[in-house]
Write a structure and sequence with these properties.
The complex is a heterodimer of chains A (335) and B (174). Chain A contains eleven helices and nine strands. Chain A is an alpha/beta fold. In chain B, strand 1, helix 2 and strand 2 form a beta-alpha-beta unit. Chain B starts with 7 loop residues before the first helix and ends in a 7-residue tail after the last strand. The model of chain B has no long low-confidence stretch (mean pLDDT 89). Classes of the chains: A alpha/beta (335), B alpha/beta (174).
Chain lengths: 335, 174
């Protein structure tokens, strides 16, 4: 079923199935494609009157958010509910840690409630890995964004959006534009795009918003937007992370929009059928013009829909991986 | 009679006749034929052609509705279900290749009802293996047969459709 098996990765069980989803880095293409295919099947569920399947009935999913988030936490919640799981939303930044409870104590408390899955959003890079390495076996951990490190479900919903619009990845030129330095989305996108084999990945940003090691990730760097966007098939905009900006990296937001904002004139330099993605929430007039965000090439709302399907796919795959890690032998699935 | 001696096309001709009679008897208008992936789809396609039904064929993948997910997990080969219309108030002909425990049919019925409330569901299967675990019975069956312990039957297709019996090495047979 799965060709390349990486026994060393903490994300995969001994059969090479996903048991945690922490990063798109180092995952084989077979797993990424399985996520996309499974998500595609869930997307077709929208034809059902009852938009719910009984897969995770009786399972408890805990949304563990150490950092505020509206759309990621709500789409994870909806994804879990459409799989019939019971969902507990915990906003830790405003509860136990302020009472002095340590992360380990919080985890042990939740384990005692018989949680089956933790969906973790944290301001520190590596937090989801830490939790995956410290939870009781059989609990799946899904990274919903950790610091500047990774946001793998966002990257996979972008991949699903590209696949559904473009068919396949091999001939595509994909540009990622904006605040690369602070963006866990960009990192996860680059890893996924490389594994799925796109022709070219470009990053477009001012020098102050580019990490030093970015070229080592196999991307072409452009500091001029007009040059970088030329003949692109996919333009992935990033949100300007104002809350993460603790030093003066930019002259002003209006200056940023002038140089790195996406408007209709710039978009015309890309291929005529290019799609425009944005992870949201969008800062209109800062990184993207309203006419583009609401225009025919924008896939921003498709991304939201695809995000639920991708999260459903990852959740059911990780639960499967945990089950099969627990039982070393399982019968043939092929009926 | 052993499975190798059954000619699938002969069974299909008989089944098509019985189904036509049943549709006429029950005065079913505009039936919606739905095949269960993957063998059920092949059988459903033949019935669809033989009965010259104009409404598009539906396909059902019951992976998300299986009752053994908590012990074996998700089948990575899952594909989307494709139903041409809502199942609301439709007369459905549900088709599978082989009926064993009846659990697949239970899952298929649950999935169908998530698309709407059908007016009726008629169950058609090529083979019935006489080993039901749930109170489910087909309205039209090509043939009934029993297998020896450890034997496994599979419909091979899509062209030509043949039945193959193999001896399972594995101790566990679902």
């Amino acid at each position: 079923m799965i060709e390349s098996i990486d026994h060393n990765s903490s994300q995969l069980n001994s059969k090479g199935q996903l048991k945690h989803f922490l990063t798109t880095q180092d995952l084989p293409a077979s797993i990424l494609n399985e996520i996309l295919d499974t998500a595609n099947s869930f997307l077709d569920m929208s034809a059902q009157q009852v938009k719910k399947v009984p897969l995770l009935r009786g399972k408890t999913v805990v949304n563990l958010f150490f950092e505020p988030s509206t759309r990621t936490s709500s789409t994870f919640e909806l994804a879990a509910k459409r799989l019939s799981a019971d969902v507990l939303n915990l906003n830790i930044s405003s509860s136990s840690t302020s009472k002095g409870e340590s992360l380990k104590d919080t985890l042990m408390t939740l384990e005692a409630m018989h949680a089956d899955m933790f969906v973790v959003r944290h301001h520190d890079s590596g937090a989801a890995h830490y939790i995956a390495n410290h939870v009781t076996p059989n609990i799946a951990v899904i990274n919903a964004g950790d610091g500047r490190h990774a946001h793998p479900t966002q990257a996979m919903l972008d991949m699903l959006t590209i696949k559904r619009n473009k068919g396949n990845f091999s001939n595509l030129v994909v540009a990622i534009v904006g605040d690369i330095l602070h963006s866990r989305v960009a990192r996860s996108q680059i890893h996924a795009l490389r594994t799925l084999g796109v022709a070219e990945i470009r990053v477009i940003a001012p020098n102050t918003l580019l990490p030093k090691d970015i070229e080592a990730m196999g991307v072409k760097v452009y500091t001029n937007f007009d040059q970088g966007i030329k003949d692109c098939d996919v333009v992935g905009m990033l949100r300007l992370q104002r809350e993460r900006m603790n030093s003066a990296l930019l002259p002003s937001e209006s200056e940023f929009f002038k140089l790195y904002g996406l408007n209709s004139t710039r978009l015309a330099l890309a291929k005529p059928d290019a799609i425009v993605m944005h992870p949201g929430p969008i800062n209109r007039g800062v990184e993207i013009e309203s006419a583009v965000a609401d225009g025919p090439q924008s896939t921003i709302l498709q991304q939201v829909t695809n995000g639920i399907a991708v999260r459903m796919a990852v959740m059911s795959m990780a639960i499967t991986g945990q089950l099969n890690a627990a039982h070393s032998h399982h019968p043939d699935l092929s009926e | 009679m052993s499975a190798q001696t059954y000619d699938v096309n002969t069974l299909l001709v008989e089944m098509s006749g019985s189904l036509q009679t049943l549709i006429t008897q029950n005065n079913i208008q505009d039936p919606l034929i739905i095949g269960i992936r993957s063998g059920g789809i092949w059988i459903a396609q033949k019935l669809h052609t033989n009965l010259a039904i104009t409404t598009q064929l539906g396909t059902l993948d019951i992976t998300f509705y299986r009752d053994d997910f908590t012990s074996i997990g998700l089948d990575p080969k899952v594909q989307p279900s494709k139903l041409p219309d809502s199942t609301q108030d439709r007369h459905i002909i549900l088709v599978d290749d082989v009926i064993k425990s009846g659990r697949t049919i239970r899952a298929a019925l649950n999935e169908l009802f998530d698309y709407g409330r059908p007016a009726s569901v008629t169950l058609v299967a090529l083979l019935d293996l006489n080993c039901r675990e749930l109170p489910i019975s087909a309205d039209i069956i090509g043939a009934k047969m029993s297998l020896e312990p450890g034997q496994h039957i599979k419909l091979l297709g899509p062209e030509p459709l043949t039945l193959n019996i193999s001896q399972r090495q594995s101790l566990e047979d679902k």
